[in-house]
Amino acid sequence: MRRTVSTRRTGRQGRAGRAAAAALACGAALAALTAVPAQARQEQEQKEPQARQEQRAPQAPQDRRAQRPRHGAPHWELKDTGTPEVRFRGLAAVGRKVAWVSGSAGTVLRTTDGGASWRNVSPPGAGELQFRDIEAFDARHAVVLAIGEGDASRVYRTDDGGATWTESFRNTDARAFYDCLTFFDRRHGLAMSDPVDGRFRILSTGDGGRSWKVLPADGMPAALEGEAGFAASGQCLVASGPRDVWLATGGAARARVLHSADRGLTWTAADSPVPAGDPARGVFGLAFRDRTHGLAVGGDYRPDQTSPRASARTFDGGRTWRPAGVPSPAYRSGAAWLPHSRVAALAVGPTGTDLTTDGGRTWRTVDTGSYDTVDCAPDRACWASGEKGRVARLER
Known about the structure:
- Helix content is 10%, strand content 35%.
- It is mostly beta strands.
- β15 (244-248) and β16 (256-260) form a beta hairpin.
């Protein structure tokens, strides 16, 4: 979305039992993170939702030790990237050992040892670009998206771990502004642009990002006035399964989620309960654990503005969205389902990390560190990244 602000361009008792059982499937570390102590749960149930929300108001980020929960509970462990000047809004978690991050100043980093060391694998000559999204298939193959007006929107691909890159797409339409990238599998993927001629523009690849073509706009609903996407976390366009994909919007009178079941050829639009009505508000990030169950997070990115009702969930593939009963207490830009769980997920933003153990009905803050995006891998590894070169992995 064309904005000058940095965050635009620059995520009861019976229920608790089911949530705890599902969280165990995430493994020992994730189970410990999702467990709610009995005393804390009792106290929480005695308070009104608004009081709980006020008590969970996040504080300013502290150092690594201050962020670590007591009693050895799982926590975000910062990994030194050596790049405090870079903001990493793009993140691809391949596994516990391998992760890629991308961000400002044309920066792409990769680790193959769990964050103990990072290799700068940035494409040559890309120092002026903003890499807001990255999709990686393994330690060697990745596709990265640069956002911006006109030819600032580009796509690069590497097949050798970032040793070399090939520019596979450069936008030549001054009206287009690409925001996010997603893949259904190693070959088929999409990228999305803010509306051109009144409709979101979709770019498609069938060869792993080596070549791209603009899809016909006939199957895309008309955009609302002022509607666009947020290039805040690489999660305004997400896929689940071989054909389903969702697109998050904001900036208009209503925050919507668009869905396609045929890899971007035709789309339907659904209103979300996430607040809108302002260029700084809307849905910033989506996460789907399958083709029917999804989460939407967002709000108002301005730090002096509150973000009530900024979490929503769907059980029907995005045809309808319900607000969270106890939403995240502040703006959140990214979200991810915990691996192998049907009910547990994380949401992150500049003021903290929230956890749900009931499929998005209620959220509670578990960390106050600043992160823009979060991603989890099939081997149960979860990573987060954000401002000031921050990258962290969920540790025990």
